[in-house]
Amino acid sequence: MTLRVLDPTWEENAAGFALAPRLPGLEGSTVGIISNGKKGTTPFFDHLAGLLGARHGVAKVVLRVKRSFSAPAERAIMDEAAQWSAAIAGVGD
Hints:
With 93 residues, the chain is an alpha/beta fold. The chain has a domain at 32-84. It contains two helices and three strands. Helix 1 (41-56) links the parallel strand 1 (30-35) and strand 2 (60-65).
């Protein structure tokens, strides 16, 4: 299977990046969810957190909400995300 990753940055001189290594599984891991805070995200992400624990053995789900739906996540969220095993970024309306 081929995975094509698109870089959505608008800067002409955006820094390059490498994909993180694939996790062997989620059991016992910490998964972070970064929400844009729009309507409808809370019930969806609450349900997703339950599924991650029940179906995949995730030990901890951390939910963080950005201050602005149109801006990147704050530095504090990104610093915390470095400690997570995996992160999910989501939007809602």
